[in-house]
Write a structure and sequence with these properties.
By secondary structure, the chain is mainly alpha-helical. It has 25 helices and no strands. Helix 4 runs antiparallel to helix 15 and helix 5 crosses helix 17.
Length: 534
C-alpha cells in the first residue's frame, strides 16, 4: 500500500523534529551573525567575485549547487517515473555546452575583466545594449531562477503538508527573503557545499534502499520497459523525439550555461582561467551523478509504486514509504537548505543586477553605499511579491508535466540570449542594431510565443503546436536569421573590433585543461553508446 505523501507529518518522530529544529536554529544563528557582522561585501564588487580566489572544486560545486534545487529532485524523479532515463539528456548533453563555456566564452569573459554579462556586452556595443540586457537579465532571473525555484518548493510543501500553493510559497519566499534582506546570503553561500554533500548523501541512501527493496540492479534493469534505458527516442515518440532534444535543447543550454550570470559568476571568480576551465569540467563530471541521484529514484518508484496517480509525487512517495523514522526529518532539512540557497541566491542576483546595472548606472550615478543597500533591499521585496504572482500563474498551467513546465519556460526565455552571444563571439560582422533588436523586439517575440503556448492556446488543448523544444528552436532560427540580415543591411553599422591587445589577452587552454576535457568527452560518448538501442 502506498503511504499518502501528506502522511509524512504523521510519521515524524521526536528525532525528526529535533533534526529540523536544530537545523533551523543553526540557519538563524548563521543568518544573525551575517546580518549584524560589519559588512563590506554588499557594495564591493571584488568581494562579490570572492576576490578571484575560487579553485576548480569550489567552482564546480558552486555551479552544481546553483543548478540543482528542489526542482531537480521533483522534476527528474517525475520524468524518470514516466519515461525512464531520456530526461538525463538535459544533464549529460550539457557537457558540450559546458565545454563551449570553458574553452570559448570563459577566456573572453576573463580577458575582458568584467563582473556581469550586461557589462561584457556593454563593452562591445555600448550603454544601450548593456541597459537592455540588464533588464532582460532581471526578467530571466525573476522567472527562470526565482519563480521556478519557488514553484518547486511550493509543490514540495503542498505535497508534504497539504496546504494551498499560495500559502506554501508565501511562507517559503518570506523565509528565504529574510536571509537575503538581512544579509544572510553570504552565510548561505558558506554552507552551500555542505548542503550539496548532504543532498548527495540522502539521495544515495534513498537510491540504495530502493534498489534493495526492488531486488537489486539486475532486477531493476530487466523489470522496466526496455526503452526506459534509451537516451535517444524515435522521431515518432510523443514525449521526447530525438530531433527535438538534438535541436531544441542547445538553445536553452547556450543561454543557461554560457550567458547566465548565476552560472558564469563562479568562473568569473576563479583564481585564473585554468582553474575556471577545470571547475566547469568538474561540474560536467558531477552531472553524471544525476542518473543515480535523481532520475533513478523515479525509475525505482515506477517499479515499487506503479499505481501512483501523479508522477510529480514520485520522489516524496519514495521518501515517505522507504525511509525509516528519523530520516524523514533529514529529508525535510535538506529540502529547506537547498530551497533557501536557491531562492536566496536568486533574490541576491536580482538585487545585484538591478542595483548595479540599472540604479547605479541609469537612475542615480551619485548613489552612496547606503543608497545602494537600501535600493537592493527594496528590489528583494519587489522580487518576492512578483515571484508569488508568477508561481500562482505557473500553477494554473494544465496538461504539462512538471519537468516540461521548467524546460518549456526556459526554452522561451533563451533564444534571444543564445543568438546575441553566439553571434558576438563567432561573427565579427554582428552590429549593435542587430543585437539591440534581438534583445528587445526578439525577446518580446520569444516571450509572446511562450505565453501563447503555455496560457492562451495551451498545447494540451490545441494540438497544432510542435514539441516545445522545437518551438524554441524555430524561434531561435528566426531570430538568428533576422539578426544576420539586419547586420548585413545596417546602413550605419556599429561593430565591435577587437584590438591586438584584446586578442592577445585571450589565453589558450593548458595541457591539463585539454586532458580533462578529452577524458570527459570520451566518457560521455561511451555513456551515450551504452544507453542506446535497448
Amino acid at each position: 500500500m502506498i503511504l499518502a505523501v501528506s502522511n509524512i507529518v504523521s510519521k515524524l518522530t521526536t528525532l525528526d523534529y529535533v533534526i529540523v529544529v536544530a537545523y533551523l536554529v543553526v540557519l538563524m544563528i548563521i543568518g544573525y551573525q551575517a546580518s549584524f557582522k560589519k559588512k563590506k561585501s554588499e557594495e564591493d564588487e571584488t568581494l562579490f567575485l570572492a576576490n578571484k580566489s575560487l579553485g576548480w572544486s569550489s567552482i564546480g560545486f558552486n555551479m552544481w549547487g546553483t543548478n540543482v534545487g528542489p526542482s531537480m529532485l521533483l522534476a527528474c524523479a517525475s520524468i524518470g517515473f514516466k519515461t525512464g532515463i531520456v530526461a538525463i539528456n538535459f544533464e549529460w548533453y550539457a557537457f558540450i555546452f559546458l565545454m563551449l563555456l570553458a574553452l570559448v566564452f570563459a577566456p573572453r569573459y576573463i580577458a575582458s575583466k568584467v563582473s556581469t554579462m550586461p557589462e561584457f556586452m556593454g563593452q562591445r556595443y555600448g550603454d544601450s545594449t548593456r541597459n537592455i540586457l540588464a533588464w532582460y537579465a532581471l526578467i530571466k532571473i525573476q522567472i527562470s531562477w526565482l519563480s521556478l525555484g519557488l514553484y518547486a518548493g511550493g509543490v514540495l510543501v503542498r505535497q508534504i503538508l497539504g496546504i494551498p500553493m499560495w500559502e506554501s510559497v508565501v511562507v517559503l519566499v518570506a523565509f528565504a527573503g529574510l536571509f537575503a534582506f538581512a544579509g544572510g546570503l553570504k552565510a548561505i553561500a558558506k554552507v552551500n557545499v555542505f548542503q550539496m554533500l548532504l543532498l548527495i548523501g540522502v539521495s544515495l541512501m534513498l537510491m540504495f534502499i530502493g534498489l534493495h527493496k526492488a531486488g537489486g540492479l539486475s532486477t531493476v534493469w530487466h523489470s522496466v520497459p526496455h526503452n526506459y534505458w534509451n537516451l535517444l527516442r524515435p522521431a515518432t515518440d510523443a514525449d521526447y523525439p530525438w530531433y527535438a532534444i538534438l535541436l531544441g535543447y542547445p538553445v536553452a543550454a547556450v543561454a543557461f550555461f554560457c550567458t547566465d550570470q548565476a552560472m558564469v559568476q563562479s568562473v568569473l571568480g576563479a583564481k585564473n582561467l585554468e582553474q575556471g576551465q577545470l571547475g566547469v569540467n568538474f561540474i560536467g563530471w558531477l552531472k553524471i551523478l544525476s542518473l543515480p541521484l535523481f532520475i533513478g529514484t523515479g525509475i525505482l518508484c515506477y517499479l515499487l509504486f506503479p499505481k501512483l496517480d501523479d508522477p510529480n509525487m514520485a520522489y516524496m512517495t519514495m521518501v515517505t514509504n522507504l525511509f525509516p523514522p528519523g530520516l524523514n526529518g533529514l529529508v525535510i532539512v535538506v529540502m529547506i537548505a537547498v530551497l533557501v540557497g536557491t531562492v536566496g541566491s536568486s533574490l541576491n542576483s536580482l538585487s545585484t543586477v538591478f542595483t548595479m546595472d540599472i540604479y547605479a548606472e541609469k537612475i542615480n550615478k551619485g548613489a552612496t553605499n547606503k543608497d545602494l543597500i537600501r535600493v537592493g533591499r527594496m528590489a528583494i521585496i519587489v522580487g518576492c511579491i512578483l515571484a508569488v504572482g508568477v508561481v500562482l500563474a505557473i500553477d494554473q498551467i494544465k496538461g504539462l508535466k512538471f519537468f516540461d513546465v521548467f524546460q518549456s519556460i526556459l526554452g522561451f526565455i533563451a533564444p534571444p540570449l543564445s543568438v546575441v552571444f553566439l553571434l558576438t563571439v563567432f561573427w565579427k560582422r554582428t552590429t549593435k542594431l542587430a543585437v539591440n533588436f534581438t534583445l528587445s523586439i526578439g525577446s518580446a517575440i520569444s516571450l509572446g510565443i511562450g505565453i501563447l503556448y503555455l496560457w492562451v492556446f495551451p498545447a494540451a488543448t490545441y494540438h497544432f503546436w510542435p514539441h516545445y523544444l522545437m518551438v524554441s528552436f524555430y524561434t531561435f532560427a528566426i531570430l538568428f536569421v533576422l539578426a544576420v540580415l539586419i547586420s548585413l543591411v545596417d546602413p550605419n553599422p556599429v561593430r565591435y573590433v577587437a584590438t591586438d591587445e584584446d586578442t592577445a589577452s585571450i589565453a589558450k587552454p593548458t595541457k591539463r585543461v585539454k586532458l580533462a576535457w578529452t577524458l570527459l568527452v570520451i566518457v560521455m560518448v561511451c555513456l551515450y553508446l551504452f544507453f542506446n538501442g535497448h
